[in-house]
């Protein structure tokens, strides 16, 4: 037998010596600030929110806080305003997100097809995404102003009778969808462009030699290879669409009436408009549950696709699991 | 299945790189044809033009004498096997192989039969439901070959199909591919940078360099009658030794100078010496003998010079000795019984019957293996 020592770095043995104790202390010292920060800004508010949702906490009325069990929840889900805001949230998600995916895919294909100046165009397209949502809200508010806005001046000048956009009951929600799409389509484009870049040119050439035309290549080969990227884009945009608040706050304030009041805005209104912290807490928890269930559903569908041909061997973790991590980050 | 004719084909990239320069040749129906050359020689460009992935800048390509250079790969009914990673990764082997049939609108039953046939032929029936990521490189290439053969193409284009596999597997697939091609009779073109691959698999070989065709012929023809020194050095398991001898004179003995060394030349070289008194000598390592200093035989039928051993490499059944003679290095294949030390002074001899003579610029073969070539002066010099 030889006596060559083997590398032992694989298993980390907890240090027991004095040096070890020092190392442990250093570990806590280094991690401590971050943990405190996380606890104070993320864990504690969540625990407090959970607690508040089961109490009669009202900031404006100095009554003692009482434990009310699920009363807040039952009050919320039987409320017509809740149901209408849930409907608006879902309509928003199911119109805006597919729209963004479609346009984003188109832009990504367009950019992937050009060789000269691709980076320049990509960065130009990214600008809306880099603007703070509140600024986006103000800019569009000016742009779409029915009286002073340049858009309506232009439309009137060429003979149209333009709507009042954000102030019109029929046009307010489409306007918000438009603004959100304007801002977030570039994100979808970037994700899908990365996906397109990951397809080797040989695959396209093989398809050409196999006799596949452009459409066949797109639907049979490119699109299936993009599924993981589409899943990521869809999930992230779906979550974000539930959180849309800034542009509603600036452009419509949930109105006219309650026509653009989504769950996020309704929750804000209950919490900081009426100081009903118990109700607002219950609303937040309900949204969290809805989002979690929704995204789990999407991911399990995506995973089933991924696994489709049963071959026994497990596939390497794909982008889907990456999306799961992102999601967990986004939910907390 | 078809014969393929290229005439005067040129390919320019971006108007600056002349990648393929005025190439003409014919591939017979059912022939296995090799396109050989170092990287950048233009061989892959020729293949891509045959496949229809690229258009020639000028010239014509004809299948069965019908010009096809403006047609798409589909219209030409060509199939191609790429170097690697060209399977559709989201599909199983079965889906990959059936794809070309599916988009041609064949019925499910037909597709199933054809896929099963080709899968059995290539021994991949047990892999048929795996995806690319679940297969080894060799298995993936088998699937790629199956995908190419399943629709019986007019022309099968193979772009270094086995270059990325390990040595043993490569050797096995060489034989398999050759048998497969023979039994199917599909006209096939393989691009390779490995002379052994080209020699072992194909019927005829076209050797290219820097976009220029050097020589077209059977392995035997190219090996034994290389048209120039480049072909001689590139083709074969071991590179041919080629060195230029200058200042060739007849008195006091027939000799010349090579990198500061005196070289005694055999009489057969005499008729080929040009006015500039230069000549290039070629000899394969197997034709070179190495002797201890002072022990070399002498004669008018052999070339001799002296040098020092640079390195001796054991190859098992022989030793490859590299000798430094002035500024020239010469490799010799010697029997394993002969042992030489590094820097040992030695004499080298090459017999007339192992000798090749090129002109002083190494561009044209003048004399090969003991017998003057018929019309040696007229052998095309493509350089």
Automatic annotation (TrEMBL), chain A:
GO terms for cellular component: plasma membrane. Keywords: Cell membrane, Membrane, Transmembrane, Transmembrane helix, Transport. The chain crosses the membrane at residues 26-51, 82-111, 123-143, 171-196, 217-239, 277-299. PROSITE patterns: ABC_TM1. Its main location: membrane. Residues 86-298 form the ABC transmembrane type-1 domain. It is found in: Cell membrane. It is a multi-pass membrane protein. CDD domains: TM_PBP2. One of its GO terms (biological process) is transmembrane transport. This is Sugar ABC transporter permease. It comes from Metarhizobium album.
From TrEMBL, chain B:
Its main location: membrane. InterPro entries: AAA+_ATPase, ABC_transporter-like_ATP-bd, ABC_transporter-like_CS, ABC_transpr_MalK/UgpC-like, Mo/tungstate-bd_C_term_dom, NA-bd_OB-fold, P-loop_NTPase, Transp-assoc_OB_typ2. Residues 4-235 form the ABC transporter domain. Keywords: ATP-binding, Cell membrane, Membrane, Nucleotide-binding, Translocase, Transport. It is a peripheral membrane protein. GO terms for molecular function: ABC-type transporter activity; ATP binding; ATP hydrolysis activity. It is found in: Cell inner membrane. PROSITE patterns: ABC_TRANSPORTER_1, ABC_TRANSPORTER_2. SMART domains: AAA. GO terms for cellular component: ATP-binding cassette (ABC) transporter complex, substrate-binding subunit-containing. This is Sugar ABC transporter ATP-binding protein.
């Amino acid at each position: 037998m030889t006596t060559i020592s083997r590398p032992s770095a694989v298993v980390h043995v907890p240090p027991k010596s004095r040096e070890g104790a020092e190392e442990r202390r250093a570990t806590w010292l280094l991690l401590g600030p971050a943990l405190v920060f996380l606890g104070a800004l993320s864990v504690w508010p969540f625990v407090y929110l959970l607690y508040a949702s089961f109490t009669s906490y009202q900031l404006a009325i100095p009554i003692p806080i009482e434990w009310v069990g699920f009363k807040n929840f039952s009050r919320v889900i039987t409320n017509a305003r809740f149901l209408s805001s849930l409907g608006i949230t879902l309509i928003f998600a199911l119109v805006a997100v597919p729209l963004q995916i479609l346009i984003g895919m188109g832009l990504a294909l367009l950019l992937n097809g050009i060789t000269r100046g691709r980076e320049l165009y990509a960065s130009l397209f990214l600008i809306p995404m880099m603007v703070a949502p509140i600024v986006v809200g103000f800019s569009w508010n000016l742009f779409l102003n029915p009286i002073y806005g340049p858009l309506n001046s232009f439309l009137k000048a060429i003979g149209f009778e333009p709507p009042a956009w954000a102030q019109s009951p029929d046009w307010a929600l489409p306007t918000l969808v438009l603004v959100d799409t304007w801002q977030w389509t570039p994100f979808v484009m970037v994700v899908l462009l990365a996906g397109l870049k990951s397809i080797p040119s040989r695959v396209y050439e093989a398809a050409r030699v196999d006799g596949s035309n452009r459409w066949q290549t797109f639907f049979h080969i490119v699109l299936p290879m993009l599924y993981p990227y589409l899943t990521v884009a869809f999930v992230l945009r779906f979550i974000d669409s539930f959180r849309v608040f800034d542009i509603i706050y600036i452009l419509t304030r949930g109105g006219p009436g309650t026509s653009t009041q989504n769950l996020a805005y309704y929750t804000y209104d209950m919490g900081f408009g009426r100081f009903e912290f118990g109700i607002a807490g219950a609303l937040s928890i309900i949204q969290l549950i809805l989002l979690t269930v929704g995204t789990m559903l999407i991911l399990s569908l995506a995973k089933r696709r991924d696994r489709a041909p049963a071959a026994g061997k497990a596939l390497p973790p794909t982008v889907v699991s990456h999306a799961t991590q992102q999601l967990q980050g986004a939910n907390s | 299945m078809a014969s393929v004719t290229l005439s005067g084909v040129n390919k320019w990239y971006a108007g600056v790189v002349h990648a393929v320069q005025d190439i003409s040749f014919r591939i017979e129906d059912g022939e296995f044809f090799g396109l050989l050359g170092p990287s950048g020689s233009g061989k892959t460009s020729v293949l891509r033009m045959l496949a229809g992935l690229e258009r020639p800048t000028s010239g014509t390509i004809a299948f069965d004498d019908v010009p096809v250079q403006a047609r798409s790969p589909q219209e030409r009914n060509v199939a191609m096997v790429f170097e690697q990673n060209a399977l559709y990764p989201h599909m199983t082997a079965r889906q990959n192989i059936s794809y070309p049939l599916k988009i041609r609108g064949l019925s499910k039953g037909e597709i199933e039969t054809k896929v099963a046939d080709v899968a059995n032929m290539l021994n991949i029936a047990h892999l048929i439901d795996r995806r690319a990521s679940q297969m080894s490189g060799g298995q993936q290439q088998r699937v790629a070959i199956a995908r190419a053969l399943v629709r019986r193409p007019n022309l099968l284009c193979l772009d270094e199909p086995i270059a990325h596999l390990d040595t043993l597997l490569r050797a096995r697939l060489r034989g398999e591919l050759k048998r497969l091609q023979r039994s199917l009779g599909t006209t096939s073109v393989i691009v390779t940078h490995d002379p052994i691959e080209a020699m072992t698999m194909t019927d005829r070989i076209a050797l290219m360099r820097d976009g220029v065709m050097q020589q077209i012929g059977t392995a035997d023809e190219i090996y034994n009658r290389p048209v120039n020194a480049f072909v001689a050095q590139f083709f074969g398991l071991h590179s041919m030794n080629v060195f230029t001898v200058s200042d060739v004179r007849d008195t006091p003995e027939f000799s010349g100078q090579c990198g500061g060394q005196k070289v005694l030349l055999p009489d057969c070289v005499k008729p080929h010496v040009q006015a500039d008194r230069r000549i290039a000598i070629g000899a394969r390592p197997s034709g070179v003998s190495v002797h201890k200093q002072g022990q070399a035989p002498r004669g008018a039928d052999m070339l001799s010079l002296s040098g020092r051993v640079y390195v001796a490499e054991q190859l098992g059944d022989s030793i490859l000795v590299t000798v430094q003679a002035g500024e020239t290095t010469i490799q010799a294949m010697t029997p394993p019984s002969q042992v030489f030390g590094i820097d040992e002074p030695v004499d080298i001899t090459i017999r007339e019957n192992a000798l090749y003579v090129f002109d002083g610029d190494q561009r044209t073969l003048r004399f090969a293996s003991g017998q003057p070539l018929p019309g040696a002066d007229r052998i095309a010099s493509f350089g």
